[in-house]
Amino acid sequence: MLSAKIDITAIEALPLPSGDKKSQWAWLRDRVLNDPEVKSHVRAGVQPVFGVGNIDSPIFFCGEAPGAEEEQQGEPFVGRAGQLLTKIIEAMGVKRSDVYIANILNWRPEKDDMTSGNRPPTIQEMAKCIPFLKAQVNVIKPQVIVALGATACTGLLGEDPDRRMGDVRGKFFEFNGTPVMVTYHPSYLLRNNTNAAKRVVWEDFLLVMRRVGMPVTPAQEKYFL
Length: 225
Prior knowledge:
Elements: H1 21-33, H2 36-40, E1 52-53, E2 59-63, H3 68-73, H4 80-91, E3 100-103, H5 123-140, E4 144-148, H6 150-157, H7 165-168, E5 172-175, E6 178-183, H8 186-191, H9 195-211, H10 218-221
Parallel strand pairs: 2-3, 2-4, 4-6
Antiparallel strand pairs: 1-3, 5-6
């Protein structure tokens, strides 16, 4: 019997308690890190991963699932791809701590043999964590969400077998009323280490900068040309 198709866009956010942003975020973090479903997927000796950064940030970066370094530190984007993302953020003229960074999934997905590995999360796995992600967006209230890669795009915009990153990157979509810029995951640039590939991603970031009112210098305009 086939399982019913999940409409990930219809899943509601985890309700937040009353209070200011700081207290809501702290409550949400504690709730997610101690969630039985999340904990059931976390192996001994590693940690679930929750969003980090400035809860007043106008930009919310959304990745896919934690990797080995992330589950060790309990923080998103701390491996090679994360280090590259940090450099891109700094090229925007801000620090990593000035923005907010989270993942679609709060644990590192297990492989079929139940070992931990870097595979894309399934739609069923993402559905478990989307209420937490939506709640984070509701706390942060960013001006723009940056979807880093195909998995983040699916989690935010829903499944579409005909969607191709080359067709949707560099365009704004919408997630619960918040604009979403789709771009490549930093790991794409690790595999495609050319100025041409870097320029494509940088053009997406320039659009984000303008959308939130950040200044763009003449030098930034010409990066990777």
